[in-house]
Design the sequence.
């Protein structure tokens, strides 16, 4: 997969891939306008939404309603390193959600590809390449 990242103005940075554009911005305190989530917020949201895809798929495969289910994600930052030390994903289910499926629901969320890639991070190669002017 290839993404093209460009800079539409101010502190905005957009990622284009396929037919999609993911727009980001910095909050005003960071020099932006706050017109979109920051890149880091987009990254964090990918964790919970990915887990959500697996929870939704689990429910659909079993004919269970996903109504009333939601995931609350909490990020805990290590005060010394200022890096994320822990991420909690609390799957909230309505009272009538079958008890026998609750542990399996958790296991389905743990299959999230974003989570797996964070647990086994890829190698990064960052470099420059000169291109001819258009």
Sequence:
């Amino acid at each position: 997969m290839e993404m093209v990242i460009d800079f539409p103005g101010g502190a905005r940075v957009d990622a284009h891939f396929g037919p999609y554009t993911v727009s980001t911005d910095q909050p005003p305190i960071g020099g932006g306008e706050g017109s979109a989530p920051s890149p880091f917020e987009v990254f964090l949201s990918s964790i919970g939404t990915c887990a959500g895809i697996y929870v939704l798929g689990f429910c659909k495969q079993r004919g269970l309603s996903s109504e009333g289910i939601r995931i609350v994600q909490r990020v805990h930052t290590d005060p010394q390193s200022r890096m994320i030390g822990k991420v909690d994903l609390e799957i909230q289910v309505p009272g009538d959600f079958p008890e026998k499926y609750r542990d399996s629901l958790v296991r389905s969320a743990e299959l999230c590809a974003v989570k797996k890639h964070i647990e086994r991070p890829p190698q990064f190669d960052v470099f420059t390449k000169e291109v001819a002017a258009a």
In short: The CA atoms of residues 68 and 96 lie 10 Å apart.
